[in-house]
Design goal:
With about 350 residues, this protein is of the alpha/beta class. The chain folds into 3 domains: about 90 residues, MurE/MurF, N-terminal domain (Udp-n-acetylmuramoylalanyl-d-glutamate--2,6- Diaminopimelate Ligase, Chain: A, domain 1, 3-Layer(aba) Sandwich), CATH 3.40.1390.10; about 210 residues, UDP N-Acetylglucosamine Acyltransferase, domain 1, CATH 2.160.10; about 30 residues. Helices cover about 20% and strands about 30% of the residues. The protein is built from 5 helices and 39 strands. The strands form 6 sheets. The chain has a 12-stranded mixed β-sheet with strand order 8-11-14-17-20-25-28-31-34-37-38-39. Helix 2 links the parallel strand 5 and strand 6. The protein is flat, with a radius of gyration of 29 Å. It starts with a strand and ends with a helix.
């Protein structure tokens, strides 16, 4: 899509300097930009790249000098990165299939679809499902009976929504996401076999949630598994039955959350964090990558390690860790010397009693 600098500034509510008729046809980083691209600059360490860029226009901080900057036009923003993200939506809008149902899709006659919904090839929508306006269902999506999907959602190929799952508005589910599969619950019978605990609850995904490829959110055994509004989940994350994730949380790749745990608002679980069953992680908690959480974490803390420690204690531990081998060697030498001294002392005492 082509847009002039003047039009872009108007749409973004920004001031601009230079030639407002310059046409923007793409977006790029400073060092890879071609003529016609829009870039942004936000950190002093990028100044050499800014001065050497081939881009047509850029978004700069309000007080940044234009000396030696070859851009034909400059837009000014308090937060250039945020403004650039908004500009991307205008210059490279997300692709949206035309509304309508593909001939190979299977849609139950009792399903309710808003008039501008798009349903891709070989997708399935079950009895009583309700799909909100502006939602895009790409090919090979499975939506079971009784599912509710809100407005302006995007369900990519391979997504599966099990029976009675609820999605809010503007939810994005990437390829292979599975919502509402049975939770992992069994009880050992008297003969040693594992008897399945029925999983008869559901899952609620609130507004503006995005879930990455091949992640899973299990249905509750009883009640509801909840992913709070605005939460963003990376690829390959597992959220178990009856978990409650608060609003605007971040779950990074390969996080695993055990059943009935609660994750607070704005919490950040970094890559490969493990949360066992029935744990509470408070609001605003940050859990460093590869951490094994072992007990509840109060709000506002930052933790790391296995088992988890306050981040300051963890840093102290690993500052000392490289010295541990030498400390152990020295300790062994001290033990040997102490044993020698004790033996000498015993001989002296024996001689003094004769």
């Amino acid at each position: 899509m082509k847009i002039t600098v003047r039009q872009l500034a108007d749409r973004l509510g920004l001031d601009f300097e230079g030639d407002g008729s310059v046409e923007i046809t793409g977006v790029s980083s400073l060092d890879k930009a071609e003529p016609g691209d829009l870039v942004f600059y936000a950190q002093a360490k990028w100044r050499p790249q800014l001065e050497g860029t081939r881009a047509a226009a850029g978004i700069l901080p309000v007080d940044e000098s234009r000396d030696r900057v070859p851009l034909r036009a400059v837009l000014r923003a308090e937060n250039p990165h945020l403004a650039f993200i908004r500009a991307i939506d205008l210059i490279v809008p997300a692709r949206r299939p035309a509304p309508g149902i593909h001939p190979t899709a299977c849609v139950s006659p009792t399903a309710r679809l808003a008039g501008d919904v798009s349903v891709g090839a070989m997708s399935f929508i079950g009895d009583g499902a309700d799909i909100g306006p502006g939602t895009v269902i790409f090919p090979l999506v499975s939506i079971y009976e009784g599912v509710r999907v809100g407005a302006a959602c995007r369900l990519h190929s391979g997504v599966s929504l099990r029976e009675d799952v609820r999605l809010g508005d503007r939810v994005i589910l990437h390829n292979g996401v599975q919502i509402g599969g049975d939770g992992f619950g069994y009880i050992k019978g008297p003969d040693g076999t594992h008897l399945k605990i029925p999983q008869v609850g559901t899952v609620v995904i609130e507004d503006d949630v995005e879930i990455g490829a091949n992640s899973t959110v299990d249905r509750a055994a009883l009640g509801t598994t909840v992913i709070g509004r605005g939460t963003k989940i990376d690829n390959l994350v597992t959220v178990a039955h009856n978990v409650e994730v608060g609003e605007n949380a971040i779950l990074v790749a390969q996080v695993g959350i055990g059943g009935s745990s609660k994750i607070g608002r704005g919490a950040i679980l970094s890559g490969q964090v493990g949360i066992p069953d029935h744990i509470e992680v408070g609001d605003g908690v940050i859990v460093a990558a590869k951490t094994g959480v072992t007990k509840n974490i109060p709000a506002g803390q930052m933790v790391a390690g296995i088992p988890h420690l306050d981040i300051r204690d963890w840093r102290k531990l690993w500052a000392v860790a490289p010295q541990l081998y030498d400390i152990v060697k020295d300790f062994k030498k001290v033990k040997v010397r102490v044993a020698e001294l004790e033996a000498e002392l015993a001989h002296l005492r024996a001689d003094s009693t004769r």
